[in-house]
From TrEMBL:
Protein's UniProt name: Flagellar biosynthetic protein FlhB
Chain ranges passing through the membrane: 34-51, 93-118, 150-170, 190-215
Record gene name: flhB
Region named Disordered: 1-29
Keyword Oxidoreductase annotated: no
InterPro entries: FlhB, T3SS_substrate_exporter, T3SS_substrate_exporter_C
UniProt similarity note: Belongs to the type III secretion exporter family.
Assigned keywords, A-Z: Bacterial flagellum biogenesis, Bacterial flagellum protein export, Cell membrane, Cell projection, Cilium, Flagellum, Membrane, Protein transport, Transmembrane, Transmembrane helix, Transport
NCBIfam families given in the database record: flhB
Phylogenetic placement of the source organism: Bacteria, Pseudomonadati, Pseudomonadota, Gammaproteobacteria, Oceanospirillales
Localisation: Cell membrane
Skewed-composition ranges (Basic and acidic residues): 7-29
Classification via Gene3D superfamilies: 6.10.250.2080, secretion proteins EscU (3.40.1690.10)
The protein's role, per its UniProt record: Required for formation of the rod structure in the basal body of the flagellar apparatus. Together with FliI and FliH, may constitute the export apparatus of flagellin.
Source species: Litoribrevibacter euphylliae
């Protein structure tokens, strides 16, 4: 996009092209709070689902390592075996939970912005290590918002943690009086519901952050009218260039069209304005096809080519105008003109016979049946 003009206010919504370029550069709305909530909540649910398995694994590991036979204490090989067994037990117990957390971390960004891999986003930029740019980011409105969010998270989560501790205070104090298995199970239950409550509290932060990130992203990508004009020029091309391209295309089309005129069977003209060249080949189409048409200078050129190649030229102004305005090059003539064109072709055939000395001279046709909806003044 052209260099942005800071003198113009950016009041217009981003165009689809602007949004596409921003996405290619990795600039999409993101909410770390939403991703954090997703991971924490997935972890809490994972504890709820796999908690019993984890607690049983911990209990089994502690039993194995706290009830060692006397002979094994003096055998270093046995200690290594116990350590390997304990590590294997812990890994097997935590793998399902780690899997849940991994999946949550991967699908978390889908909530806002979706997956987006942009190579441009990881390319080194001088502005990222520029001290002045760094200071601007430190004292920007975005940094202030991040600070407020951080304080809000600490206050909310910390305050809820205090309430949870107060709620479970009596149960926590009596844990040492329970058996080891009962204490571990009870502790796991307290940890589980505390984790669920603390994770759920981050939803409040995410609910505030997501709309803000969407608003901030849209605001950052807003454009001025000059930006939109510059983008249009880049995507659609400058008007003078487009005019030149159209002119060249028209010239090429005219050259192709003029190249087809020698194949015409007849040229029908309005002597001062229009010319149309027609060809009828029953093996190709059921009706005559227009090979070329033109007005003024192009019409004159068509007649010149017709004279050069001895193509019959018939003056029939109403019919020439009707064909010119109702038929495109390469198309068959309208059905309403079949009778008129049949009369023209019949006249051309009779004229050929007369020129060959095989018949009388035909009368020039004057009136052709043209339906009202195909007439053109």
């Amino acid at each position: 996009m052209a260099e942005e003009d800071s003198s113009q206010e950016k009041t217009e919504e981003a165009t689809p092209r602007r949004l596409e370029k921003a996405r290619e550069e990795g600039d999409v709305p993101r909410s770390r709070e939403l991703s954090t909530f997703t991971v924490l909540m997935a972890g809490a649910v994972g504890l709820w689902v796999f908690g019993d398995r984890i607690v049983n694994s911990v209990i089994g590991m502690m039993k194995d390592n706290l009830s060692i036979e006397r002979a094994a204490i003096y055998d270093t090989k046995q200690m290594a075996i116990h350590l390997a067994s304990a590590a294997n037990e812990v890994v097997l117990a935590l793998v399902p939970l780690m899997g849940v957390l991994t999946v949550a971390a991967i699908i978390g960004p889908l909530g806002l912005g979706g997956w987006n891999f942009a190579s441009k986003a990881i390319m080194p930029k001088g502005s990222r290590i520029n001290p002045i740019s760094g200071l601007k980011r430190m004292f920007s409105m975005r940094s202030l918002v991040e600070l407020v969010k951080g304080l809000l998270k600490v206050t909310l989560v910390g305050g809820l943690a205090v309430l949870i501790m107060d709620w479970y205070q009596t149960e926590i104090l009596f844990l040492p009086m329970e058996s080891m298995e009962s204490a571990l199970a009870h502790s796991a239950n307290i940890i589980l519901w505390s984790a669920i409550a603390l994770s759920a509290s981050t939803l409040i932060i995410a609910a505030i952050d997501v709309p803000y990130q969407i608003y901030e992203h849209a605001k950052k990508l807003k454009m001025s009218m000059q930006d939109i004009k510059d983008e249009f020029k880049e995507t659609e091309g400058k008007p003078e260039v487009k005019r030149k391209v159209r002119q060249l295309q028209m010239e090429m089309a005219q050259r192709r069209m003029m190249g087809d005129v020698p194949d015409a069977d007849v040229i029908i003209t309005n002597p001062t304005h229009y010319s149309v060249a027609l060809k009828y080949d029953p093996s190709i189409s059921s009706a005559p096809i227009m090979l070329a048409k033109g007005a003024d200078q192009i019409a004159l050129k068509i007649r010149e080519i017709g004279n050069e190649y001895d193509i019959p030229i018939l003056e029939a102004p109403p019919l020439a105008r009707s064909i010119y305005y109702n038929t495109e090059i390469g198309d068959e003539i309208p059905e309403g003109l079949y009778v008129a064109i049949a009369q023209v072709l019949a006249y051309i055939f009779q004229m050929d016979q007369y020129m060959a000395g095989r018949g009388p001279k035909p009368k020039d046709p004057k009136d052709f049946p043209i339906p009202d909806d195909l007439q053109h003044e």
